[in-house]
Design a protein that fits this description.
Structural class: alpha+beta
Mean pLDDT: 85
Strand order of the largest sheet: 1-2
Low-confidence stretches: none
Number of domains: 1
Distance between the termini: 44 Å
Number of helices: 3
Radius of gyration: 21 Å
Number of strands: 4
Shape: elongated
Strand content: 15-25%
Order of helices and strands: EEEHHEH
Largest sheet: 2 strands, antiparallel
C-alpha cells in the first residue's frame, strides 16, 4: 500500500486502520461588500480597487485567499490527537 501518516510519519501497514482527513477553508466574501449601503461612486471605486488587486496578484495566491482544500491520512494516535483538539488550542490549566 505504501501509506504513511501525515501527522507523525508512521508507516501504515495493510492491516492497519487509518483515517482520511479533509479540510476545506473558504472565504465569506459576501460580508465584505455591501453595495446597498454605499453610493454608486463608492461601489464603482471599491470594485476598481478589487480588480486592480486581482490584476497584480498571482493566480494561485488569489485562489488560496478564497478557497483551500487539504487531505491527510492519519494513524489512530494522530486521529485521536486531532479529534481532541482540532483547532490546536493551548490547554488551559485550572
Amino acid at each position: 500500500m505504501g501509506l504513511t501518516c501525515s501527522g507523525c510519519g508512521k508507516k501504515i501497514e495493510k492491516t492497519d486502520v487509518y483515517w482520511h482527513l479533509r479540510i476545506e477553508l473558504w472565504a465569506n466574501v459576501e460580508s465584505n461588500f455591501e453595495p446597498m449601503l454605499k453610493s454608486e461612486v463608492e461601489v464603482d471605486r471599491e470594485l476598481e480597487l478589487i480588480l486592480q488587486r486581482i490584476d497584480i496578484t498571482d493566480a494561485e495566491l488569489l485562489e488560496n485567499e478564497v478557497y483551500q482544500a487539504m487531505q491527510f491520512i492519519l494513524c489512530r494516535d494522530c486521529r485521536d490527537r486531532f479529534a481532541a483538539n482540532p483547532l490546536n488550542k493551548p490547554f488551559l490549566k485550572q
